[in-house]
Amino acid sequence: MAGRDDEMIHCNPDVTRAVFGLMRCRKQWADIDGGHFGLLYHPSEIFEEASAGQCAFLTEALGVQITRRSQTT
After folding, report:
1. What domain range is 33 assigned to?
2. Which of 34, 43, 63, 65 could disulfide-pair with 38, CB 3.0 to 4.6 Å?
3. Reported pTM
4. Using CA atoms, how far apart are residues 16 and 33, in angstroms rounded to an integer?
């Protein structure tokens, strides 16, 4: 998962893509709006998008089924 507008000077998008390409494991690229830390702010739309994507990937990759999701506010 990479922010389209990453403000961190050392987070080069070309390097990030190259490292992703070299990984020899189950993987899925996901671009998200915002910067490096934007997806961490809860509650927010981008947080929900990022966490839902991560949950979906891990659920499929680990072969588990989630029957109930609890929410905290």
Report:
1. 2-62
2. 34
3. 0.75
4. 16
